[in-house]
């Protein structure tokens, strides 16, 4: 899996989210159907000519109030320059160049990032002529597109792929578990890593693949050999934009994509909030293993039921994918930090779990017999056999005579049966129905 990031910047109403939806739609629709995960508006995966990349629509993060607009947008453009690989600057041919466009262009011109200008709403040929004024930005070639009809987007995406430079991008098969600690600012990520690894960090080596923005370090602790994927963001403490969600999402995306298992830290004093759920969804969307760690447990006043109550609240928020380990920890008192690592390693193993076809059929065909897919328009759906696909993350294909009639609730039933019979705790799994 690739971890290239395209950030879409531009002032409001130029069509950023329309373009974002077009770019991520087909793929997203599949993912949604499969995992039942709700989509958030701002982050998605896109695929063009077999190349996969992440797309972030910065627009979704702008506070919707006139006086903060310009400052806010400028801040986001700076962040996009810092964090993304390629920046797509979207402008609107209907309005022509506005002051805000000029302000954004000025920031982009000073950056050394690859910038692509998309002139949107070029729905007809006349507008191609109108679009020429955008060469005035001095940002190089412009691409005329219509996000509404899709016209021109193919050429644009060819350019995006070229700008990314995918050479040497094959995902390396890790021999060791690649773990990371993710979560919102101030949940205690740095503290947790320090507690886990101690002052006398048993650093074995720096691992190849370490780049400017991510540092992979190999450790041997508590009987486990593993790699901690750490982003520069974790180290640069007190950065001014630590509190900006867009920034933390960008950081999280990078980290998550490089990990096998993510330890998602949640602040015990706040519970699982919308932003935590967003990060959880990013992990699931990337099909990575996950362990939820409720940190700062030391400062919570406990009555006999508190863990159960908090656990329930969390499972409600992350439904339908609730087969996830939840652990109450304290980076400060070191409570269960060691155990958190054990859990993460177990999830890593679960993610590698390959079930024998014979066993899989024995279990699932019986489940199908007990509860067959409901017939549709008088047609009976027969599931003949099941196999685990040879993919990096657990995926199962069920072969049926009429797979197109099988609906989401039944897919979920099968997933639950798989989870009930085999250990995939903490691991997103895919279930497909295919024609036999
Ligand atoms: P954002 O604020 O930049 O994310 O802009 P939106 O994607 O919400 O689009 C703003 C408006 O422009 C909406 O009413 C869209 O329907 C419209 N729009 C977006 N793309 C196109 C396009 O290619 N052609 C036309 N004519 N309208 C578009
Ligand atoms: P990060 O931004 O996620 O890396 O968070 P930090 O590790 O910088 O922690 C943020 C604040 O929470 C700091 O003041 C920490 O001392 C505090 N903190 C972190 N973990 C714990 C914990 O388990 N218990 C308590 N009481 N405070 C914690």
From TrEMBL:
Statement: the UniProt record of this protein carries the keyword Protein biosynthesis: no
Keyword Cell membrane applies: no
Chain positions recorded as GTP 2 binding sites: 183-190, 230-234, 295-298
Database matches in Gene3D superfamilies: 3.30.300.20, P-loop containing nucleotide triphosphate hydrolases (3.40.50.300)
Keywords from the UniProt entry: GTP-binding, Nucleotide-binding, Repeat, Ribosome biogenesis
GO BP field: ribosome biogenesis
Binding positions (GTP 1): 10-17, 57-61, 120-123
GO terms, molecular function: GTP binding; ribosome binding
Ranges for domain EngA-type G: 4-168, 177-352
One Pfam family in the UniProt entry: MMR_HSR1
PROSITE patterns membership: G_ENGA
Database matches in InterPro entries: G_ENGA, GTP-bd, GTPase_Der, KH_dom-like, KH_dom-like_a/b, P-loop_NTPase, Small_GTP-bd
Quaternary structure note: Associates with the 50S ribosomal subunit.
Family label: Belongs to the TRAFAC class TrmE-Era-EngA-EngB-Septin-like GTPase superfamily. EngA (Der) GTPase family.
Function, as annotated: GTPase that plays an essential role in the late steps of ribosome biogenesis.
Family matches, as NCBIfam families: GTPase_EngA, small_GTP
Protein's name according to its UniProt entry: GTPase Der
Originating species: Tangfeifania diversioriginum
Taxonomic placement: Bacteria, Pseudomonadati, Bacteroidota, Bacteroidia, Marinilabiliales
